[in-house]
Amino acid sequence: MAKLTRRDGLILGLGAAAGAMLPGGRALRAQVPVADVQPPSYPIEKGAKLRVLRPSKFVKGDEELWLANSKKFTEQTGVEVIVQQESWADLRPKTAVAASVGSGPDVILAWQEDPHMFPGRMLPLDDLATYLGKKYGGWFPVCEIYGKNQEGQWIAMPIGGSGSTMVYRRSSVEKAGFDTFPSDFPGFLKLCQGLKKVGHPVGFALGNAVGDGGWTDWILWGFDSSLVDEQDNVIIDNPRTYEALEYARELYETFIPGTLAWLDPSNNKTYLSGDISLTGNGISVYYAAKNSDDPRMRELAEDTFHADYPIGPLGKPSQGSLVINAMVMAHTDYPNAAKEYLRFMMEKEQYVPWMEASIGYWCHPLAAYDESPVWTSDPKHEPYKNVLRKAMPQSWKGTPGEAASACKADYVVLGMFQSVCAGSMTPKEAAAEAQRRAERYYKA
Questions:
Q1: What is the CATH number of domain 165-319+410-442?
Q2: pLDDT digits (tens, 9 = 90+) for 31-89
């Protein structure tokens, strides 16, 4: 937990300013086109103090610049800010406790659809979201889905999304006989089989990983199946799901042992150790290798490349994104300070340096930030640029809400894939079990 005061803000505040410059002294913020829109007025309450809950870092720059920008806010407003960071697995239960008991953090950067689990427990953000959308080129569609309730009111505001691409060692892919990375499901399976054959296996998280377990959605949706239909009827027990599970089982045979217990940090560590040559991940793997003092890690970074997820029978990209979705809690004593804090953090002077320090680990939700130099400073960053533009919501094909959020929190889809890959259920048995589990939430 970090307590941010006016007195200790200077050093990191200067660090944020330094982070806002490109080589040669060119300002990052000048790269982002903005509209001339007046911000909403939030007169800050006397004596305001804010407690902010957010997920723990996966790249060092994310944490450093978030704290630096928070200190900068303190310097400019006098509002003391305490930032608490929770592990990815613990963020969801911490959010639920705060919302249920009506006390705790004033601002929570929750996971994707989690705000929809707590109707009435957060303040509306329509004026803030409208302002930011007009100023910065508009919100990407998935962000509006995550941010708005079914009545069209903004109940939360996406801050960014952890983008996942295929992370691979080019030398291993070439050794397996591939000059380019496959763009479809059959080609991807052949690549994984080839990598295992040459002793360079792959690995995807099959434990209850909040972010990295999302590759199972990619496969399910890629076969044009989903948990629910457009009317929110549970329909996961269907032949297309069986095909998706059969495909996943074949992929699993190419995995390094132990992936059934993998959580979010696992594939990062295993890739960086050299034990796997391909995984699905954010840019954190490349970030760690590129910024290491170890020459072997630098060599790994040189050999590491990123590619879009292959496309399945659906015929279009079918992956989601792990979105951090900011809520101002209804129990806060300082609603204006909380809204002003979120506005401040999303303005280009703070947001672009944060993106740069994170090398794009959290992809932007607003179109104007396409022009951030982070996407052109290194060609290997570019595949992450459109993660939120193309992302599907976790409730696809249905609507966000308490049931969709509860199914995600209970790992209904991921658990189905776990059972098949572990060999404890057939695809039909696993789909039937997922159907029963999901119906408990959708019929509640």
A1: 3.40.190.10
A2: 799 999 999 999 999 999 999 999 998 788 899 999 999 999 999 999 999 999 998 88
Cα–Cα dist 302/60, whole Å: 20
Residue 122 is which amino acid?
M
Residues in the chain: 444
Determine contact, residues 64/355, Cβ cutoff 8 Å. Answer: no
**CA nearest neighbour of 191 among 278, 268, 301:** 278
CA dist 176 and 256 (Å) reads 16
Answer positive or negative: Cα dihedral of 193, 198, 199, 203.
negative
Q: What is the CA radius of gyration of the chain?
A: 22
Q: What are phi and psi of 327, to 5 degrees?
A: -120, 140
Angle, to 10 degrees, between the axis of helix 239-252 and the axis of helix 215-222?
130
Helix axes 239-252, 427-442, angle to 10 degrees: 120
| Spatial distance between the Cα atoms of 438 and 84, rounded to a whole number of angstroms | 32
Please give the single-letter amino acid code of residue 29: R
Quote the tokens at residue 4.
């941010």
- Each residue's pLDDT tens digit, 423-438: 999 999 999 999 999 9
> Where are the domains positioned within the chain?
2-163+322-390, 165-319+410-442
Tracing tokens 């705060």 back to the chain, one arrives at 98
Q: Do the Cβ atoms of 311 and 184 come closer than 8 Å? A: yes
**Cα torsion for 109, 366, 398, 401, to the nearest 10°?**
30
Domain 2-163+322-390 and domain 165-319+410-442, same fold? Reply is yes
- Bridge-partner residues for 108, per DSSP? 53, 327
Indicate the pTM of the whole model.
0.83
**CB-facing half-sphere around the CA of 96: CA atoms within 13 A:** 12
- Which of 131, 156, 161, 136 is CA-nearest to residue 146? 156
User: Is 230 exposed, middle or buried (CB count within 10 Å of its CB: 0-12, 13-18, 19+)?
Assistant: exposed
CATH topology (fold) of 2-163+322-390: D-Maltodextrin-Binding Protein; domain 2 (3.40.190)
Of 301, 241, 249, 238, give the one whose Cα is nearest residue 272.
Answer: 301
Provide the 10 A C-beta neighbour count for residue 383: 20
Tokens of 366: 């607003």
